[in-house]
Amino acid sequence: MRLLIVSLLLVMSMPARSQEEWVLVWFDEFSVPGLPDPAKWSYDEGGGGWGNNELQYYTANREENARVERGKLIIEARKESMGNRNYTSARLVTRGHAAWLYGKVVVRAKLPTGAGTWPAIWMLPESSLYGGWPRSGEIDIMEHVGFEPDFIYGTVHTAAYNHIQKTQRGDTLPVLDAEEAYHEYALIWKETEMVFLIDGVEFFRFANEGTGPEAWPFDQPFHLILNLAVGGNWGGKRGVDDSIWPQHMEVDYVRIYQSPKP
């Protein structure tokens, strides 16, 4: 009997098993040198400002702007002329390869430095079920602007909440070494809410109000985007330092998890 009581006490003293269970469903560890895996990534290509008056021309299948080396994905912005633009860079997308409805997105990355850099880890809808931006939503897991080197932003855009109306929902967290060290930028996306984290620390939570797609269009699959912009309405708000190029966003891994529970 004493042995049974001791066993029960030990069980009761053990920490409760986490209610959160995740299964890895998609990943890229960037282990093969050269161009990013074409089975996992495509490119958005071209200039034109991308809706934010950005200065770069995004290239495709060009190792100078996107390559895998030493186990890392390197997205490089360069000062060079192409397509009537004075900078080049890359914007990698999983669109057409993989998209997810709910789950956990984890990206470990080190960010560029200097005024004019604007790296982002974010998501857009695969099919824009509710119409064009911002009606079908945007999820900015990580944004960083070089003129504010110590801060990371996480933001959500919808028809009701977006930066055009200055109603976007988001928050920021100080990360003093984001340009020198790798950090995990993560999103936990459920039917009821989104939680934004850096190295496991929550800094922003956005709840489903239950009022429909104008506030919550996030009931459809989204694909992942990794890019490094130059200048633009936000990234270039305090100018672009022409002495800093090239600059890199380095990505150690991308891992997507989903819950096995219905």
Notes on the protein architecture:
By secondary structure, the protein is mainly β. The chain contains two helices and 17 strands. It has helices at 2-13, 232-235, and strands at residues 23-28, 42-43, 56-58, 66-69, 72-82, 85-89, 91-93, 103-110, 117-125, 138-143, 151-157, 169-174, 183-189, 193-198, 201-207, 222-230, 247-258. Residues 1-18 have low confidence and may be disordered.
Estimated helix fraction: under 10%
Write the H/E string, N to C: HEEEEEEEEEEEEEEEEHE
Number of helices: 2
Strand content: 35-45%
Shape: globular
Measured on Cα atoms, how large is the radius of gyration? 20 Å
Per DSSP E runs of 2 or more residues, the count of β-strands stands at 17
Instruction: Return residue spans where pLDDT drops below 50 for at least 5 consecutive residues.
Output: 1-18
Average of pLDDT: 93
**Main sheet: strands, sense, barrel:** 10 strands, mixed
Output the structural class: mainly beta
Q: Kindly, what is the distance between the CA atoms of the first and last residues, rounded to a whole number of angstroms?
A: 41 Å
Please render the helix and strand layout as text.
Layout: H1 2-13, E1 23-28, E2 42-43, E3 56-58, E4 66-69, E5 72-82, E6 85-89, E7 91-93, E8 103-110, E9 117-125, E10 138-143, E11 151-157, E12 169-174, E13 183-189, E14 193-198, E15 201-207, E16 222-230, H2 232-235, E17 247-258
Parallel strand pairs: 3-6
Antiparallel strand pairs: 1-17, 2-7, 4-5, 5-6, 5-17, 7-16, 8-13, 8-17, 9-10, 9-16, 10-11, 11-12, 13-14, 14-15
